[in-house]
Task: inverse folding
């Protein structure tokens, strides 16, 4: 019903910046939140940031507060993740996700985009 496609990943030096995009298509009427998750090799998929679709309320993991900013463009059905002051530990595959209930599970997932932070 909802398809998500991430883009914008790549290689960046420590301290650099990168902006990820997530383009959504299909039915958006029931989407409550959209978010970003990441998974490093050998580790579990972790929450990074989320945004409430209707009013733009945001939330962040402690590890990225003050460095990452999630935003949305309702007209374009697109969510962004601006990543500043990147650290090597930010290296991971970043996934876009969407859910239909605030306290429910994330239901829709993109394929992911690789972010590598290295000198």
Result:
């Amino acid at each position: 019903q909802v398809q998500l496609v991430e883009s914008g990943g790549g290689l960046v030096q420590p301290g650099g910046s990168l902006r990820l995009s997530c383009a959504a298509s299909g039915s958006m009427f029931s989407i409550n939140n959209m978010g970003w998750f990441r998974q490093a090799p050998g580790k579990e998929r972790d929450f990074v940031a989320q945004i409430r679709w209707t009013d733009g309320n945001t939330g962040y993991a402690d590890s990225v507060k003050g460095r990452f900013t999630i935003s949305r463009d309702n007209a374009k059905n697109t969510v962004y993740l601006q990543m500043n002051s990147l650290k090597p530990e930010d290296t991971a595959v970043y996934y876009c996700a969407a859910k239909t209930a605030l306290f429910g599970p994330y239901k829709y997932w993109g394929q992911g985009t690789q972010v590598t932070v290295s000198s």
Observations:
- The chain is about 0% helix and 50% strand.
- The first strand starts at residue 2 and ends at 7.
- The CA atoms of residues 91 and 116 lie 5 Å apart.
